[in-house]
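REVIEWER CHECKLIST
Item 1: Sequence provided? yes
Item 2: Single chain? yes
Item 3: Sequence as submitted:
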Amino acid sequence: MWLTQLLERNRQCFPDRLALVDEQRSVTWAEFDARTTELALGLAELGIERGDRVAVLSLDRIEVLESYFALARLGAVFVPLNHSLALPEVAGIIERVGAVAVLGESALLDRHTELPACVRIRVALDKPVFAALGSVAAPRALPGVPDTDPVAVLHTSATTGQAKGVTVDEGSFRAIGLGWLAVARPDDDIVMVNCCPLYHGSMVVSLTYLAAGATVVLMPGFTPQRALAAVERHRATHVWLVPQMLRFLLQAKASHRTDLSSLREILYGAAPMPLDVYADAVDRLGCGFRQVYGMTEVGGPFVTLGPDEHPAPGDVSARIPCGRVIPGMSARSLGKDGREAARGEVGEIVVRGPGLMQGYWNDPAATEEVTDDGWVRTGDLGFIDEEGRIHLVDRSKDLIIRAGQNVYPSEIERALMTHPAVRDAAVVGIPDEDYGEVPLAYVVAPEGTDARALLAHLGERLAPYKRPRNIEFIEQVPRNPAGKIIKKLLRAETG
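Item 4: Structure as written out by the authors:
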């Protein structure tokens, strides 16, 4: 009952401290604890029982986390839904998990007039009926729920195909949270602006800092102006975002007139930090940086590089290392032969420990595909250096093999981003009769930018076999909400 214990501990230690803040209201730890108990009783009166799956469809707001914690008290399973998904995609997830109820914002629920037959309860989070849930419920004992019971089905970001439902228990949240906090050693006065959505594995970062008694500030979607205003208004000490969001923050005109002096740490993850963004942020913000490397299937953030370990911008030649694995979790780099790779040798990163998922929901074949003797395959190619730090190179599925030579798209993307005209870039492999596969680059740049000049720029930085066959200009690189490039859309463009 990790989530319940988290609430009880913080209610006891920090009753009057703010736990959650959004654009509508705020709640203290005492109020948060009382409300989730009340809400659990109300949901039980509606007929939700231990083991039931309940979908949550909403922008980030306090009621979302109240629902997660209340369902955990009941032993029910919360299933966060990406509110940007199309109607058939939402219905498909609900049907696959057999959700008996959907809790959501009324505007989103109104879009989904026809839900699968398994749904028998619909409640709008922003209507009086939700606020009244449990307020007149008769006191009753809530079940004792072991940490081995499923608590959530978190869906992957699906950059390569249909999203998979990752089943996690409270033991996973506890293992990741305690391991992370042992390394991060947070102060007890943290105010964290959460720029990342609460509907996938990135929410574990917020749960982890909540476990330490932090105040978490929620926003109904990221905009640079909204995030900057939240930092200034709440005197935030920490911000959790993806690198692309940081770029937007620095580019916003409001950033120059916003008081950001309260910031101590920028937490970033989901994608590599562009070196120009890092250098600009270090110069302008004057705070520490903490890298977050995680994966929903292994419980969320399991590797970190802290502020004291971050290199000076001028000392970074290629990419900032991800950092070391947190206590309680283990990571290796495996070569093609399945054996542990030597230090500095590129292989696939695999992970094991108590943070691992129970498996993909009702999909044993997919679970077996990513697990091997207690280890989960991340699909990330990387190496571990002599000091135990993990360095990522690329995704194994994105690797381009040109005439037998490995070409990493991320290396080409980084080289492109060093050109002053390039705003964003993505590289995919395309079939080639002579070489099997060659790189193709997609670039966002001002009108009139010369592709030949970009190829010449790459010629000074990359070996011939790594250079793209062509460069195509596009208006925007497709990315998911976590900031990861959706390369399947670019591959579809190439036919």
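Item 5: Key structural point noted by reviewer: Residues 29-45 form the longest helix (17 residues).
Item 6: Recommendation: ____
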